[in-house]
Design goal:
- The protein is of the alpha+beta class.
- The chain has three helices and seven strands, in the order βααβαβββββ.
- The mean pLDDT is 96.
């Protein structure tokens, strides 16, 4: 893949375009298979509610992966990310089998570093709640 964005073209304070990722029960079941985490709170409403959750919730790592995808889609190069970290602040609740939920991710260039690297601060929200905090990625750009 060829990178779409160049280091010389990025400025501190630049906002990346927002992206909305759908989160459905089907995508969570698929993630269960990919990750090996079949905890029933990620696909069974009755069990999720019985343990005090509002409904089925997305895996934290699924949410984190969508935020990482946001960055690599922006750079156009899945190998561009050199650092990535988040803190989980709230779950993504998936209240319906059919309509699911939405994860909205935005980013702002915070800093330009040596070695053609850029620091991007991320914001991830679902149903109005901030679901990731201290979300930050460092990418190397051409």
């Amino acid at each position: 893949m060829t990178a779409q964005v160049k280091y010389a073209d990025v400025e501190v304070g630049s906002e990346l375009p927002p992206v909305s990722f759908p989160v459905t029960r089907l995508s969570l079941v698929k993630y269960c298979g990919a990750s090996g985490d079949f905890n029933v709170i990620h696909w069974n409403e009755r069990i999720a509610k019985s343990v005090g959750l509002p409904d089925v919730i997305a895996h934290g790592m699924f949410t984190m992966a969508q935020a990482a995808r946001y960055i690599t889609d922006w750079t156009g190069d899945p190998g561009s990310m050199t650092e990535f970290g988040v803190r989980f602040s709230a779950p993504v609740v998936v209240p319906d089998d059919d309509t699911g939920a939405s994860l909205e991710v935005t980013g702002t260039v915070e800093e330009k570093l040596d070695g053609d690297r850029v620091v991007v601060a991320l914001t991830a929200r679902s149903a109005g709640a901030k679901v990731l905090t201290r979300a930050r990625a460092v990418v190397r750009l051409p």
